[in-house]
Amino acid sequence: MTQPLLSIRDLHLRMSSFDGRAHVLNGINLTVNRGEIWGLVGESGCGKSLTGLSVSRLQPTPPAHYTAGEILLEGHDLLKLSQAEMQRLRGKRIGMIFQDPTTNLNPAFRIGDQLVDVALAAAERDPDVIGCSPNAGRRERRQAARKLAGEMLARVGIPNALARLNDYPHQFSGGMRQRVLIAMALIGRPDLLIADEPTTALDVSVQAQILELIKNSVKDFDMGVVLITHNLGVVAQTCSHVAVMYAGNIVESGPVAAVIGNPVHPYTRALMSAIPTRETRRGELRGLAGSVPNLITPPPGCRFAPRCQFAQPACTAAMPTPVSVGDSHAAACIRVNEMEALVDD
Ligand SMILES: Nc1ncnc2c1ncn2[C@@H]1O[C@H](COP(=O)(O)OP(=O)(O)OP(=O)(O)O)[C@@H](O)[C@H]1O
């Protein structure tokens, strides 16, 4: 059997602050294969970004400290690598896109120069990236990198790409800047792309184009994607799989059709019923009462129990382990097999 592209196993991350230690990731398990787009969803503060940052090893240190677990990229544990070794993987094997396209481009440099720098850095690790021998002269390598930069810009849908290499970031709209960042993330031909809220800052029509671009890039580059979002609509539209996070745990995961078509964890069900639909009339929108618990003193057992309408005393006895409820579909709830009956009541 082939190795999964990414395998996060029982990852525990602790954060220290003046108030105490927070267990912000509490045994995360996630497997991503090439060709898959995994959506990570959940309310603010559930640990989505820290999971993504952990894979790229960009978590804030200090105060972040791993107490257990592994992050395997094709079998190699990223947590065992030095920052210098990790630096070599970023851009080449792991690409990243973040929420705000404005702050992630340097306003003082032309778009072309920024893309060329990333391509040359990736080519140091793999000369094939720019298709130029490592023994070639500096000028020849820059020319090859610039040609690739133009091709990448065209590929992410920037019209008149070659001429636009000479422009500065302020000459691009928000959606265009996000396309440039996608080009930058893909130029080193990564195996894995981590996209943290890549469309949140964009208007709805541009959002759809960017999500389509990510979907097409998965096919073109045969990579795997972890897409972090608050939005279950984005997951339904873009992802093949989804992991629902609550307070540092994955509470439900599986293929999108199974999880969204038949959510079994009370938290997933609550998130879904909070989505406005065409039928939702004024005053009928059901929000999710309460908030994510303080992770310095989390509630005992299931962390969702204090907000769960189906909680019973046994829920607070121990952290529930994931139970399989279908093909690759699992949920961490001790009442999962009763859920159909509970919901019908
Ligand atoms: N630098 C930090 N120092 C201390 N605690 C932090 C730090 N960064 C994040 N946290 C805590 O870790 C937890 C998880 O944060 P994270 O940013 O991963 O959540 P998230 O699900 O991505 O939220 P959002 O959707 O708002 O980005 C939160 O409780 C947060 O307060």
Descriptive overview:
With 345 residues, this protein is of the alpha/beta class. Among the domains are: 86 residues, no CATH class; 80 residues, no CATH class. 32% of the residues lie in helices and 22% in strands. It contains 11 helices and 12 strands. The strands form 2 sheets. An 8-stranded mixed beta sheet has the order 6-7-8-3-9-10-12-11, sandwiched between helices. Helix 4 crosses helix 6 and helix 6 runs parallel beside helix 7. It is globular and about 70 Å long. 42% of the residues are buried. Adenosine-5'-triphosphate binds next to strand 1 and helix 1.
β-sheet strand percentage: 15-25%
Query: What share of residues is helical?
Result: 25-40%
Number of helices: 11
Mean pLDDT: 89
Question: Which structural class do you get from the secondary structure elements?
Answer: alpha/beta
**Ends apart, CA distance between termini:** 44 Å
How many beta-strand segments? Answer: 12
The radius of gyration over CA amounts to: 22 Å
Strand order of the largest sheet: 6-7-8-3-9-10-12-11
Give the distinct bound molecules: adenosine-5'-triphosphate
Point out poorly predicted stretches. Answer: none
Per the principal axes of the C-alpha atoms, what is the gross shape? globular
SSE pattern, N- to C-terminal: EEEHEEHEHHHHEHEHEEHHEEH
Tell me the major beta sheet.
8 strands, mixed
